[in-house]
Amino acid sequence: MTVAACVVYIGLGSNLDDPVRQVGDALLELREMPGSQLLRHSRLYRSTPIGPQDQPDFVNAAAMLETALDPFELLDALHLIEKRHRRERGVRWGPRTLDLDLLLYADRRIDSPRLQVPHPQMHRRAFVLVPLHEIAPQLTVPGQGALAALLAAVDTEGLRAVDEVATG
Fold first, then answer.
1. Catalytic entry in 18, 99, 111, 160
2. Could you confirm whether 155 is annotated as catalytic?
3. To 10 degrees, the CA torsion angle through 79, 18, 29, 131?
4. What is the assigned CATH class of domain 2-167?
5. Across the chain, how many H-helices and E-strands are there?
6. Angle, CA of 108, 110 and 111, to the nearest 5°
7. Which pLDDT score, from 0 to 100, does residue 164 have?
8. pTM of the full structure
9. pLDDT digits 0-9 by tens, 29-77
């Protein structure tokens, strides 16, 4: 079932098999997603893992899409992209080739066994808030408040733009 087009936000992350390429390729795939249009995306950021520490740093980004897909169709499309990138679901917060999280679906709140929107931990994660703020600084997260206020409350110390990492 399709719905009236709305703006959604996707969090992207990878720490395996050339993470910069994985995230870049996923952004290209989001651009080609049926019923959707990629409106904007953030720079890439490098972050330390929040789960087991014996894994590589992550590369993260955020994307803004306009989509006519309903939330569950969009979730299925995101999982299909992850599958094409050989995503394996094993250790919670463990290493992965690609992770695509539906962060926000317009201003809707969804609480189902398959999908929770807004993403339940996004307000605590600098690697989500910094790239999201880059592309939508005036955004308000339903049930959490203004994105700028959420960002001001988190530690961004371990997060660096990938171009800053590359140049030192």
1. 99
2. no
3. 90
4. alpha beta
5. 5, 10
6. 155
7. 55
8. 0.91
9. 999 999 999 999 999 999 988 877 778 889 999 999 999 999 999 999 9
Closest CA to 63 of 135, 145, 148: 135
Catalytic residue (choose from 40, 101, 114, 124): 101
H helices of 90-157, where? Answer: 126-135, 147-152
Quick check: 1 and 70 in contact, CB under 8 A? yes
What CA–CA distances, in Å, run from 48 to 24, 104, 126?
A: 19, 23, 10
Say whether 99 is catalytic. yes
- Is 96 an active-site residue? yes
- Round to whole Å and give the CA distance between 114 and 75: 9
Least reliable range by pLDDT among 71-85, 121-135, 151-165: 151-165
Percent of the chain with pLDDT over 70: 89
70 is known as an active-site residue? no
Among 25, 70, 86, 96, the active-site one is 96
What mean pLDDT is predicted for residues 83-97?
Answer: 72
User: Pick the catalytic residue: 87, 109, 125, 163?
Assistant: 87
